Amino acid sequence: MLDALQLLKPSEFPPLLQEIPDRPKQLYVRGTLPSTDHKWLAVVGSRACTDYGRRVCKYLIDGLRGYPVVIVSGLAYGIDAEAHRNALDAGLPTVGVPGSGLDWNILYPRANVSLAREILEKGGALLSEEKPDMKATDYTFPKRNRVMAGLCHATLMIEAREKSGSLITAKLTTEYNRDLLVVPGSVFSAESKGTHQFLRLGATAVTAPEDILVALGITKREGATSLTALRTDLSDDEKRVFDIIASPVSRDELIESLELPISEVNVLLSMMEIKGLIVEELGVVRMK
């Protein structure tokens, strides 16, 4: 059956998880574990994520479409759920590691049970070291965080408060000698104070999907179709803007690259925002 429970011994764990010093004694699994030939990426972040965090999560995971990447997250509210949904939308395999057992009557949070079922229906898996009837408790979440970090080649952190549980996963990632990738956030947002701590400590800043591919050792496909080639409704100037902001840039950089009068650029960007093509925040212009 699709959701039948399996019990894995340590010798049957994905290879990366076998390497960590505090590996679980056993794992319960529902669904199909993705190929270990893929690069596994843990995505963590705030349960109370902002609109910025949601859009960044979608932008980065969409950019991994078609690459051999598995998205791992904790099935929780906020960035976790966004990561799973974006992975499903992008056709990427995804693995949920909840802070509870995998019994359908226990699975936490209850609001994401339908998401968990969709993960299984689309070929992914759910993992937990807890017995199936174990309810989520304060101490099961740090335990599951080490499983997530241990499973993956790298961890991507998108928004985290100063005392966020995501920081545990980030710390364990570095202790396991895996890559920690961090999305810079607004200096005015409490949801970015934790992420900025790790940037100061030397984590890799991520502002585009290509940054993730580099960290995972994946070569970007040659001759990949650009976004502008897929759009037939853009003017020549709008296409130039899209090409320039393939990675987010400051408004000043964009104006300089366009080599147009400032008055024309202001009108162009205003019209593109009205059309819902771009968004500008704190002087940085991004695709919407």
Describe this protein with a few key phrases.
288 residues; alpha/beta; Rossmann fold; Arc Repressor Mutant, subunit A; nine-stranded mixed β-sheet; three-stranded antiparallel β-sheet; 12 strands
Protein described:
- With 288 residues, the chain is of the alpha/beta class.
- The chain has two domains: 212 residues, Rossmann fold (3-Layer(aba) Sandwich), CATH 3.40.50.450; 61 residues, Orthogonal Bundle (Arc Repressor Mutant, subunit A), CATH 1.10.10.
- Helix content is 38%, strand content 17%.
- The protein is built from twelve helices and twelve strands.
- The strands form two sheets. Strands 1-2-6-5-4-3-7-8-9 form a nine-stranded mixed sheet, sandwiched between helices. Strands 10-12-11 form a three-stranded antiparallel sheet.
- Strand 8, helix 7 and strand 9 form a beta-alpha-beta unit.
- The radius of gyration is 20 Å and the shape is elongated.
- It starts with a strand and ends with a strand.
- The mean pLDDT is 88.
What is the element layout, followed by pairings?
Elements: E1 5-8, H1 15-19, E2 27-31, E3 39-45, H2 51-62, E4 69-73, H3 79-89, E5 94-96, H4 113-121, E6 125-128, H5 140-151, E7 154-158, H6 166-175, E8 179-182, H7 193-200, E9 204-205, H8 209-216, H9 227-230, H10 236-244, E10 249-250, H11 251-258, H12 262-274, E11 278-281, E12 284-287
Parallel strand pairs: 3-4, 3-7, 4-5, 5-6, 7-8, 8-9
Antiparallel strand pairs: 1-2, 2-6, 10-12, 11-12
